[in-house]
Write the structure tokens for this entry.
Amino acid sequence: MALIRLGFGRQHLCLLRRRSLLLSKLIAVVFAVLLFCEFLIYYLVILRCDWPEVKTPAHNSGQETLKAMFLADTHLLGEIRGHWLDKLRREWQMERAFQTALWLLQPEVVFILGDIFDEGKWSSPQAWADDVERFQKIFRHPHHVLLKVVAGNHDIGFHYHFVMVNSVALEGDGCNLCSEAEAEIIEISHKLNCSREQEHHSSRCIDEQPLPASAPVLLQHFPLYRRSDANCSGDDAAPLEERDIPFKERYDALSREASQKLLWWLRPRLVLSGHTHSACEVLHGAGTMEISVPSFSWRNRNNPSFIMGMLTPTEYALAKCYLPYENTVLATYCVAVGFLAVLMLAHFKLLASPLLFGWNLLRKLKTT
């Protein structure tokens, strides 16, 4: 009787150990997958990004080089259209991507080219305050890093050779916001022209405080006028079936008139815009390059990215940095779930081991 009890106790203890070992394995796998998909993958992907080299090195020209990040269309969801799980997933992705990029790349300034929120025009004051608080948490940054958002009339200004324009206000219909925006752009245009004409001591510029005598970089949300994305290419361009769809002026892009005014008044050396959620390079007028920056969020595309720029007063160099693909993360989770299922089936002996299955198959082949 004592032997039976002892045997039963040992069997029970062995069963507990097996279950404990299974639980440990499951926890280890889950922890490893979460660690990879929610943290490590961002470091592994962004670590491959390098700052581009400016054609004329700053140490040879005596010019300072600025490291700038450009991202667009974060579309933080609000309380009306935003499902809590969708908000949690997308905002966590943007937070981890942004914080990892700051830590690895060490930019000096970050520009977000509009569409920060998805429901700004519908939000109540309290909902707007909550959205702003979430934005400040996701895109928190050290004090030595400057963060500028291209949104609203007060963001029209000149800084670090950049002109930031509220392109939403360039409807050309004479509204108060539009008139104020146009007046500010004309004022900046006058200051830029005076800086270019310093050598000629123009009488119009006597009372103007000079700006750096270099062509600015134009930053705005809406792209300049173009017929469509037909000439855009690359992995992060618009889908092929959408590229030939004509753009609507004042909806998909600025009007032809507003675009010509900006190019004429500011004479930028480079234009960076968002809004389309897809990448594109367009050459305007007298050779002005416009770069459409893709969306930074998984909500708008599977392969989000941002632009890295090295800029001097006269030169610039750009490079693109891709974020982890959403389908890569989802596929990793699917593989992990499959592995856990196999692990549990094998533990409860509901799945034969591969060696045993192969041995039995070999025996059957020999007997036939």
